[in-house]
Design a protein that fits this description.
The structure is a single chain. The chain is an alpha+beta fold. It contains 2 helices and 4 strands, in the order ααββββ. The longest helix is centred in the N-terminal third of the chain and has 22 residues, at about 1-25. It is rod-shaped, with a radius of gyration of 26 Å. The relative contact order is 0.09.
């Protein structure tokens, strides 16, 4: 019984390492998980600004800057 469990464990480890080895891409190439983590880190570290009309906070990269004031959408930008 002990030999059988040992064999099953050994086969599982071999399969795991073979899949891990064959699944690796180029060392410089990033996986989609790496890209998602980098994007979330970038978004988490981005400055937030407040809309001058509705006071909603929005990421600086998504806000509209008009006459030194930030707006969350074009509908809140004054017409004049």
């Amino acid at each position: 019984m002990g030999r059988l469990l040992f064999l099953i464990l050994l086969i599982a480890l071999i399969v795991y390492f073979v899949k891990r080895y064959l699944g690796k891409k180029n060392p410089g190439e990033k996986t989609s998980a790496d890209n998602a983590q980098q994007q979330s880190e970038h978004l988490a570290s981005e400055d937030m600004v407040q809309c001058a009309t509705c006071q909603v906070h929005i990421a600086r990269s998504e806000a509209f800057l008009v006459k030194q004031r930030f707006y969350c959408c074009t509908a809140h930008v004054p017409k004049k």
